[in-house]
Amino acid sequence: MALARGETTVDGLPFFLEGSVVKGFGRGSKELGIPTANLPIEPYEDILAKIPVGVYCGWACVNNGPVHKMAMSIGWNPYYKNTKKTLEVHLMHEFADDFYGQQLRAIPLHYMRNELDFTTIENLIQAIKDDITYANEYLERPENKRHQSDAFFSASPCEHS
């Protein structure tokens, strides 16, 4: 099933996230094969109350590392029946180690699609992979790529490469 992406405009984008990476449910890497860095949601409750749950894309960096493309889920993860909203960032880069406790900065630029429930884990994984493909292409556009050099990143320990 092909999912529609990029058809909804969301007010309030881009916005800026910064925080220490916290442990999530441990499903991203282990169960899905798609590692995520979770940020605490409490500092962003006001922003998150104004935007729809779903999948976003943009740019992110960890500590002194380079700025990478990212796809991000904000929501309840209905496949897993979560009772707590999560903010999970997938950086499109392979890292050698986990970075729990490290500083993550992210700029969500674009709302890709709404949050969905999936009947199988295979369908969920395929949707996430398709989200990543869409995000990669979207972020290559010059008007989106320029955000990789945003002052938000240069004012932090993160560096652009």
Number of H- or I-type helical stretches: 5
What gyration radius follows from the Cα positions, in whole Å? 15 Å
Indicate the structural class: alpha+beta
Strand order of the largest sheet: 1-6-3-4-5-2
Number of strands: 6
Task: Explain what the structure shows.
The protein is an alpha+beta fold. Helices cover 24% and strands 25% of the residues. The protein contains five helices and six strands; from the N terminus they run βαβαββββααα. It has helices at 28-32, 45-50, 121-140, 142-145, 151-154, and strands at 17-20, 37-38, 54-62, 68-75, 86-91, 103-114. A six-stranded antiparallel beta sheet has the order 1-6-3-4-5-2, with helices on one face. The model has no long low-confidence stretch (mean pLDDT 87).
Features:
161 residues, alpha+beta, six-stranded antiparallel beta sheet, 5 helices, 6 strands, 24% helix
Compact summary:
By secondary structure, the chain is of the alpha+beta class. It has helices at 28-32, 45-50, 121-140, 142-145, 151-154, and strands at residues 17-20, 37-38, 54-62, 68-75, 86-91, 103-114.
